[in-house]
Amino acid sequence: MESPRPDRNIALELIRVTEAAAIAAARWAGRGDKNAADGAAVDAMRIVLSGVQMQGVVVIGEGEKDEAPMLYNGELIGDGNPPAVDVAVDPVDGTTLTAMGRNGALSVIALSEKGTMFNPGPCFYMNKIAVGPRGRGAIDINASVRDNLTELSKRLKKPIQELGVVVLDRPRHDELIGEIRECGARVLSISDGDVAGAIATGWPNSGADILLGIGGTPEGVIAAAALKGLGGEIQGVLHANDEDTRIKAEALGYSFSKVLTTDDLVASDNCFFSATAITDGDFLRGVRFTEFGATTQSLVVRSRSGTVRTIETFHRHNKLAEFSTAIF
């Protein structure tokens, strides 16, 4: 008997997961220890995930790249009851941002029907291009920067000089940034957190119109789940940062020339996404600790219904202790 499709809005249950992780990580914000923040978020996320009704398997875990604490690939999560689903997690998207007390850190989780999420295997990096709903269909990752910005400018009815282009601040992007500036567009440099950067392209008044450059493949899959619900688009091409990675990945059947579309990254038309801000960002306010506990702001998206919700939640101190191992 086939497992039933996830017909209920599981995203409204997943919000508890990202809220718990965000609050746990926020206690480490600005304290200079990114692994401690990540570890606290992982522990909180795992505890709350155990109570969600699903047969979940982690297709995209976190931590392998940075040797940080993990919700490991292949880990079974949920209470063991249907539906069967793929899960992608990033307890802290922006560990350095959190450790340094900087803006833009999120706790995120994405979920789709079993067998529908792209598994990046050993391919940690991907060249990406992402836009919001108004820019969908106007981008081509194989086209030049100028061609993409020109087409997007026409689609948005916005001069190139007013376009905001999100780019990770990395030496590998020096040439890319030069091309963007030569076109006259504005570079919105981010130090970390390219899931948030991709989501920002689909968020009104964020100032971000397009994301370009090489970032994490797992983050690309998570962003695809979010952009499906927001109505945006992402394209990616796997990137090998060394020859050993390329050889290993190609032996497993991965291609470093194939363009991966939004549907390649998340094939289901029924996926769910939840993000809770750890620190302040372009579209969500970070965790605030108060005399009664904490407040959080979250973004919850379901692709099938096209619903996008922002939710503010108040958490009492005695309840926080149930899912947080952070030290006060």
Number of helices: 10
The main β sheet shows up as: 8 strands, mixed
- Portion of residues in helices? 25-40%
Distance between the termini: 48 Å
Order of helices and strands: HHEEEHEEHEHEHEHEHHEEEEH
Looking at the chains present, what oligomeric state does this protein adopt?
A: single chain
Describe it for me?
With 328 residues, this protein is α+β, with helices and mostly antiparallel strands. The chain has helices at 11-26, 34-49, 95-100, 145-156, 174-183, 194-200, 217-230, 243-251, 262-265, 317-320; strands at 55-60, 76-77, 84-93, 106-113, 125-131, 164-168, 186-190, 210-216, 233-239, 272-277, 288-289, 293-302, 307-316. The chain is globular, with a radius of gyration of 19 Å. Residues 63-68 have low confidence and may be disordered.
Throw out a few tags for this protein.
328 residues; alpha+beta; 5-stranded mixed beta sheet; 10 helices
Write a concise synopsis of the structure shown.
The protein is α+β, with helices and mostly antiparallel strands. Helix 1 (11-26) packs antiparallel against helix 2 and helix 6 (194-200) packs parallel to helix 7.
